[in-house]
């Protein structure tokens, strides 16, 4: 149990996953951690996680480590209580269409770079308002392995008819390295370059679909990985690009390595 800005929080279950380790929580059990929290940089996602553990308000709190005026004027928890982004975006009403119609470039930048943790009762994040379409935007992590593992082995099987054992193994390793380069390039020069995206709502929406949603809602466990429906056309594009770089007899095996590393 700790006190922050006059409220009481039960961090028993959270301390195991605390990024700084459980010691920092154990050493301050029963204490006012307001000043300690202020002195160490914490993101809004940390505030939202802390807010989930709130169990009450400490009446007559004098804030042993910080005066009440400073808490009132500079409250960190106050930053997330009203969640200003909800005035523009309703997470339950399909965020893709709302990003397209409601957010200009500055608003979009603020939206995707402010990690949100949905803690209100019955909170849900939908990319599409229509349940049928939204179903295809959800990809539990294990779906990736279930879908792409057979594809990897199929490409290896094709490659086994084209290469002997040693070239097969070397081509597969080359595929692993190739995907590492592809993934780095995508993140470095496309996914994380949103500041350079032209002021165009369509381009912003495309960026949101492919990567921005992961930053905006990092705690959405159904969208931690790339949707299979969107990955399939990219799969065929990558095969085509590989055929322009590598000899034809290597393409299937290199692609197997690319898929394996992707998983």
Strand content: under 5%
Mean pLDDT: 83
Number of β-strand runs: 3
Q: Which of globular, elongated, flat, extended, rod-shaped describes the shape?
A: elongated
Output the structural class. mainly alpha
Order of helices and strands: EEHHHEHHHHHHHHHH
* Strand order in the largest sheet: 1-2-3
Sheet bearing the most strands, described? 3 strands, antiparallel
Helix content: 55-70%
What separation lies between the terminal Cα atoms?
40 Å
Give the uncertain stretches in residue-range form: 64-72
Q: How big is the Rg?
A: 24 Å
Number of helices: 13
Description:
With 263 residues, the protein is mainly α. 56% of the residues lie in helices and 4% in strands. It is built from 13 helices and 3 strands, in the order E-E-H-H-H-E-H-H-H-H-H-H-H-H-H-H. A 3-stranded antiparallel beta sheet has the order 1-2-3. Helix 7 packs parallel to helix 11 (201-216) and helix 9 (141-160) runs antiparallel to helix 13. The longest helix has 27 residues, at 165-191. Residues 64-72 have low confidence and may be disordered.
């Amino acid at each position: 149990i700790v006190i922050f800005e006059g409220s009481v929080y039960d961090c028993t279950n959270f301390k195991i996953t605390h990024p700084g380790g459980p010691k920092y929580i154990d050493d301050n059990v029963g204490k006012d951690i307001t000043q300690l929290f202020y002195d160490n940089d914490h993101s809004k996602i940390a505030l939202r996680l802390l807010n989930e553990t709130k169990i009450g308000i400490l009446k007559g709190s004098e804030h042993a480590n910080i005066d009440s005026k400073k808490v009132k004027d500079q409250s960190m928890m106050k930053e997330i209580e009203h969640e200003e982004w909800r005035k523009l975006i309703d997470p339950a009403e399909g965020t893709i269409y709302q990003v397209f119609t409601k957010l200009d470039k500055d608003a979009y930048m603020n939206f995707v770079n402010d990690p949100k943790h949905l803690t209100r009762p019955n909170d849900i994040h939908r990319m599409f308002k229509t349940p049928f379409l939204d179903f295809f935007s959800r990809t539990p992590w294990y779906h990736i392995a279930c879908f792409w593992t057979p594809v990897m082995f199929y490409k290896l099987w094709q490659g086994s008819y084209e290469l002997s054992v040693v070239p097969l193994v070397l081509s597969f390793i080359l595929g692993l390295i190739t995907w590492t380069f592809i993934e780095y390039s995508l993140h470095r020069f496309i996914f994380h370059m949103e500041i350079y995206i032209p002021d165009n709502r369509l381009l912003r929406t495309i960026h949101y679909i492919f990567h921005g949603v992961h930053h905006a809602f990092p705690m959405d466990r159904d969208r931690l990985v790339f949707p299979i429906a969107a990955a399939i056309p990219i799969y065929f594009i990558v095969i085509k690009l590989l055929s322009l770089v590598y000899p034809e007899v290597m393409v299937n095996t290199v692609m197997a390595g690319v898929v394996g590393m992707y998983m």
